[in-house]
Design a protein that fits this description.
ABC transporter transmembrane region fold, Rossmann fold, 4 domains, 4-stranded antiparallel sheet, 12 strands, about 5% strand, ABC-type heme transporter activity, ATP binding, mitochondrion outer membrane, disulfide bond, endosome
Length: about 850
């Protein structure tokens, strides 16, 4: 029969907190479960009421299916059973059972049962509001306190009232139960930070995404509102896999050896940090009152070790410069190449300001990330582990526990608070991108701003964007100050507790003064990098946030891809075939419908029709800016989607409707058609394009800078430079997209003559607005509403009296009207210039 003789053991009282070099079991096993049950019951009850009143049942399809959540539940149930079975075992194995053992078992079982209920409530109900992913503060705090309570058992390492001796069967069983609790509560806390059973994003966002149109959901900013509240450590493995090529300089043996040598220097720094406090102790112990009579060799070694750490660190930083430059170069070059490989569709919808800011922040953040992880995080963790082992081994478990508890609290709160403030950093980045994007757009379109006197409007828009950025910046800085203050309190408390304990042992004669010096030196040396650990974590997180936009650029898929075994285009004659081609930029609106035509080698085919009918789209499809959705395009019998894009485009020359030049010299802009061309060949191309004489009138001639997008040149001059560029390329297939639309009549005639010579014996496709320029085409295709409405030569189409004849008649009438207006104005000017004649003058002769 089991009975309770008293609440505490004999010769013990609940008011006694310290008994025989350890915490009193009666005091500890009363306080710990009481705090846990009180916290879990009251806060958990409020939590459940709040979820029942303001929450909603979560749809099953949004609840993550993961084995880790099942493991989380299993551990919770296992701990509950452990408390109950442990209490029953102690009652069965002992005739007299202290009251605190029953209280400990019952209170602990109740608190864990309530925690399991909270875990299930959070999985089934959700607050309909934007919140960061993860468990509630109640559960996280409960698991953290439970894990901390098990760690406090280390304080009683030398006490005979606890189970550390493992001398009796009871102690062995109690130790096994404690080990189960320690591992279980630790796992629950760290798994709880991931929250595997809960959605990773706000529930309302998941609902909206489920109902949102696919096309609209894709049109978000580079940062993406979809991941506003997502942890920066999500997809960590994927991010690290992208970083590996930049961490390890593959193919460069010298840099690889340099990386290994720098890592070796990090190990040397860690060893030096251990010896510095040890030699402080060696100096102080022998002669407390007379330092001068101490061993001079120890003083010398102390000075050497104190300076060696900084010296090694500086050497490592110097050697790492080459590796850092390699990383920076590779990242930028690969990203730049990737952006050029993306489709025209992506480039037409991109925001240049966003892209430039993402590239700048992303490339700089990779260097920061590598430096912080390799040279800050890993060494700091190594220092902490070494210090815990050293203090437990050479001092006692108290000091190891102090370091461990402070480290756990510090890192835990740092992670929780930093994850909480992540959304503010993301918002700040987004507002920064928005401000810079507005500035870039406004400056690129400064002519439009001037046309409409919109300077004040643009300045106001930019100022409004800056104000929004500063609001987000204030939240980021305020939350950072809160985090720093929390870290300082934890570090200061740990340093105070350790110093007082060490001083107490010195006064008791258990420690020497040198041990106090050793502890003070080591703890300050340890807490300095630990204090920076929060900064490192924040900087790593900031780097991940800054890299997110860049990773999204890397993740952009190429719309037009070469097949795996694609070969080069074998250009023989220049026969172009469109066979039943269908194409649309967006689903539901077809631009081309069942377009079929053939251009024989050396022929000139003209495409005419109303604006938006699909003429320029045919040019883009032939150049393979896009792939067709139906049908086939062939050159000399070869499907262009089966050949390499570079080989296809090497044979095609394009004069676009809207010419954009590089901010470079005229000579280099023309030479862009063939980079290896000589100056003489550049001039010959300019002569053929009827722009050479105009260039020679400029003060700098061919070295004249054309300005941003060629804005220093007129529209006609830019188009002639583009024509010269295409002439210099000397392609076998020529595409002219409104090539003379920006030219006056005389210049147009001159260039038409030049183009006729260039296009001789070459397959040519011309998109024309002025029908007078394509009278001599071998075939004219009239495009209307994405279909070929008419086809034939000029005379045939005029005789048909269809759409082409109507367009021709309207252009002729407009031309005659313009000609008559010009004639009348010339006559008026002539009348004004002629002197008046009088009869008196005649009679005078």
């Amino acid at each position: 029969m089991v009975f309770i003789q008293s609440y505490c053991e004999s010769n013990s009282s609940i008011s006694q907190t310290w008994v025989d070099e350890g915490i009193s079991p009666c005091f500890f096993f009363t306080l710990a479960p009481t705090i846990l049950l009180t916290m879990c019951f009251f806060l958990g009850t409020v939590h459940c009421i709040f979820y029942q009143k303001y929450g909603t049942a979560m749809e099953p399809k949004f609840i993550p299916r993961t084995r880790l959540y099942g493991f989380q539940q299993f551990i919770s149930v296992l701990l509950l059973v452990q408390f109950l079975s442990g209490t029953v075992w102690q009652a069965a194995s002992a005739g007299e059972l202290p009251g605190y053992v029953v209280l400990y078992g019952c209170f602990s079982a109740l608190s864990w049962a309530w925690a399991i209920a909270l875990l299930r409530v959070e999985r089934r109900r959700v607050l309909v509001m934007d919140r960061t992913r993860g468990h509630s503060v109640v559960l996280l705090l409960f698991w953290a306190l439970a894990f901390s309570a098990e760690n406090l058992a280390f304080v009683s390492w030398y006490s005979p009232h606890w189970w550390w001796g493992l001398e009796t069967k009871k102690q062995q069983v109690l130790f096994a139960l404690w080990l189960m609790r320690y591992i279980g509560t630790g796992l629950l806390f760290f798994i709880g930070l991931k929250a595997p059973g809960l959605p990773r994003r706000p529930y309302m966002l998941l609902i909206n995404e489920d109902e949102r149109d696919v096309e609209n959901s894709g049109q978000v900013s580079l940062l993406g509102t979809n991941e506003e509240n997502q942890s920066t450590w999500s997809d960590f493995r994927k991010k690290v896999r992208l970083l590996i090529p930049y961490i390890w300089p593959k193919g460069n043996v010298f840099l690889q050896l340099l990386v290994l040598f720098c890592l070796g220097l990090v190990g040397v720094e860690r060893a030096i940090n251990v010896f510095v406090p040890i030699y402080y102790k060696n100096i102080v112990i022998p002669y407390i009152d007379s330092l001068m009579s101490n061993d001079g060799f120890s003083v010398l070694l102390l000075c050497l070790f104190s300076g060696a750490s900084g010296f090694v660190s500086n050497v490592r930083s110097f050697l790492w410069i080459k590796v850092q430059q390699f990383t920076d170069r590779v990242v930028q070059v690969r990203l730049f190449a990737h952006l050029h490989s993306l489709s025209l569709r992506w480039h037409l919808s991109r925001k240049t300001g966003d892209v430039l800011r993402s590239i700048d922040r992303g490339t700089s953040s990779i260097n920061s990330l590598l430096s912080y992880i390799i040279f800050s995080i890993f060494p700091t963790i190594a220092d902490i582990v070494i210090s815990i082992i050293y203090f437990i081994t050479n001092f006692n478990a108290w000091f190891g526990l102090i370091v461990f508890v402070c480290m756990t609290l510090y890192l835990t709160l740092t992670v929780i608070i930093t994850e909480w403030r992540t959304k503010y950093r993301r918002e700040m980045n987004q507002q920064d991108n928005n401000a810079k994007s507005k500035a870039v757009d406004s400056l690129l379109n400064f002519e439009t701003v001037k046309y409409y006197n919109a300077e004040n409007y643009e300045v106001g828009r930019f100022e409004d964007a800056i104000l929004k950025y500063q609001v987000a910046e204030w939240k980021t800085q305020a939350s950072l100050a809160f985090l720093n203050q929390t870290q300082n309190i934890i570090i200061g408390s740990g340093l105070l507790a350790g110093s007082l304990l060490c001083a107490y042992f010195v006064t008791e004669g258990k420690f020497q003064v040198g041990d106090y010096v050793l502890f003070g030196t080591y703890i300050i040396q340890l807490y300095t990098p630990l204090n920076w650990f929060g900064t490192y974590y924040r900087m790593i997180q900031k780097s991940f946030i800054d890299m997110e936009s860049m990773f999204k650029l890397f993740e952009e898929e190429e719309e037009v891809k070469d097949e795996v075994n694609a070969g080069n285009l074998q250009y023989t004659q220049g026969k172009v075939e469109f066979e039943n081609v269908y194409f649309s930029y967006t689903s539901g609106k077809e631009i081309l419908q069942d377009v079929s035509f053939t251009v024989l080698p050396g022929q000139t085919v003209a495409l005419v029709g109303p604006s938006g009918s699909g003429k320029s789209t045919i040019i883009r499809l032939l150049f393979r800016f896009y792939d067709v959705q139906g049908g086939c395009i062939r050159i000399d019998g070869q499907d262009i989607s089966k050949v390499k894009q570079t080989s296809l485009r090497a044979h095609i020359g394009v004069v676009p409707q809207d010419t954009v030049l590089f901010n470079d010299t005229i000579q280099n802009n023309i030479r862009y058609g063939r980079i290896s061309a000589s100056d003489q060949e550049v001039e010959e191309a300019a002569i053929a394009a009827d722009i050479h004489e105009k260039i020679m009138t400029f003060p700098d001639g061919y070295d004249t800078q054309v300005g941003e997008r060629g804005l220093k040149l007129s529209g006609g001059e830019k188009q002639r430079v583009a024509i010269a560029r295409t002439i210099l390329k000397a392609p076998q297939l020529i595409l002219l997209d409104e090539a003379t639309s920006a030219l006056d009549t005389q210049t147009e005639r001159n260039i038409q003559a030049s183009l006729t010579k260039v296009c001789a014996n070459r397959t040519t496709i011309v998109v024309a607005h002025r029908l007078s320029t394509i009278i001599g085409a071998d075939q004219i295709l009239v495009i209307n509403n994405g279909r070929i409405a008419e086809r034939g030569q000029h005379e045939e189409l005029i005789l048909k009296g269809g759409l082409y004849a109507d367009m021709w008649m309207k252009q002729q009438q407009a031309h005659d009207s313009d000609s008559s207006s010009d004639t009348e104005s010339k006559d008026r000017r002539s009348e004004k210039l002629q002197p008046p004649s009088t009869s008196s003058g005649h009679h005078g002769h």
